[in-house]
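We emphasize that the prediction below concerns an isolated chain of 127 residues; any contacts that depend on oligomerization or on bound cofactors are therefore not represented. The input was used exactly as deposited, without trimming of termini.
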Amino acid sequence: QVQLDASGGGLVQAGGSLRLSCAASGRSISAYAMGWFRQAPGKEREFVAVISWSGAGTYYADSVKGRFTISRDKAKNAVYLQMNSLKLEDTAVYYCAADRRAFRVVTSIVEDEYEYWGQGTQVTVSS
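Result of the prediction step, given as a token string:
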């Protein structure tokens, strides 16, 4: 079992930055791709970013490309999401998730491919 604890959310003005953290416990996540998803009020949860198990590959939703950066620290068993140039439409609850398959060659943006989920952290961007 893997427990994921997402943190770092908060209230920020448009144009500002936040860094989300996702700390894993229970076992190592080093062999698993890790993703970030978000759910805005009244909307379905959507993919934001993913990093491969090795850390060499990343992929982003078009809406955040160039503004968000996903990274991981295997020594700390953690994943991060640096969010810059935040927009009002980035307001959402952000979730980190661990891939259900180890050493996946091609990372997935599909929720069903993720087995473990954190509790979510609220990000609110104000004007």
